[in-house]
Amino acid sequence: MAAPSAPGPSQPREGLPALFIPRTAAEEQRVRLERLMRNPEKTVLIPEKLNEWAPRPPPEFVRDVMGSSAGAGSGEFHVYRHLRRREYQRQDFMDAMAEKQKLDEEFQKKLERNKMIAEEQTAKRRRKRQKLKEKKLQAKKNKLEQKKQEKESDQSQERASSKEDEEDSKEEEEEKEDDAEELSFVMGRG
Checking phi first, is residue 11 left (phi over 0); if not, alpha (psi -120 to 50) or beta? Predict the structure, then answer.
């Protein structure tokens, strides 16, 4: 009988996933998420945003002041070169910060301008909606008034016709009374 062979590089060991080499950014992200989700209780370290590099401020007190005597030593050149490089870096940094600040201000102005335009458009649309709403409300009021007037005119016509009917009925009653009197006269009561 052959002894059990040890797993080779192509065979995964028990309990461990096969070696997977991500070929795209999406696959790499998937692998990282799977690794995170294996143990959800484990805390995840989220790196904080790194501070921007800033050059050292210029020294308040310069100790190595170059003398005015001629014949500076060979080491002074390197000191001067480093000071000059540091000063150029500082000036470049200040220029870049000024440019960044200028772009930020322009962006903020653009945001404000866009916000104002959007507010104006919103106000214009609001006025239009309000006008339509008032128009509909006015039309509804006019319709109700018209119905009310029609109802009142119908009622006044009914009253007029009822008054005429009452007058007609009064006349008929009087005629009946007259007829009754005539009949009673004829009968000899009176």
Answer: beta
> What is the pTM for the complete model shown?
0.42
Contact assessment for residue 72 and residue 66, using Cβ atoms and an 8 Å cutoff: yes
In angstroms, the CA 128 to CA 102 distance is 39
The phi, psi pair for 128, rounded to 5°, reads: -65, -45
Q: What is the pLDDT of residues 1-27, one digit of tens each?
A: 455 555 555 555 455 567 778 889 999
